[in-house]
Amino acid sequence: MTRKTPCYEIGAFVQVKTGTSDPNYPEILLGGWVGFVCEVTENPPFRYLIHWNDETMQKWRRFWRREIWLREVDLERYDGGPVSIELPASAWAGFATCCEMQHQLPHM
Q1: Per-residue b/e over 79-107, b at no fewer than 16 CB within 10 Å?
Q2: Taking 80 as the threshold, does the pLDDT of residue 69 lie above it?
Q3: Model's pTM, two decimal places?
């Protein structure tokens, strides 16, 4: 049975569930990202326009969008605490490559 009212109201702080990726860019994982609901679709299945909070934006500066539409199933209520952002394996590989290159540079 489909619920007739949205689970989250405008202004609610939400966190993206682990394993959720950007609907338009599947290589970008959004798990752990935190923001607040700016807008809700009128009819089920409900979708939410999420505006990322400052801590999320500071941790993932390469992300160019401040807002994103997500499905209700991708979200959970955020009750505070540190923002722990899920990164794809490719991001860690890039970080490791960068570190290796820095160690190979001559010291000045």
Answers
A1: eeeebebbeeeebeeeeeeeeeeeeeeee
A2: yes
A3: 0.76
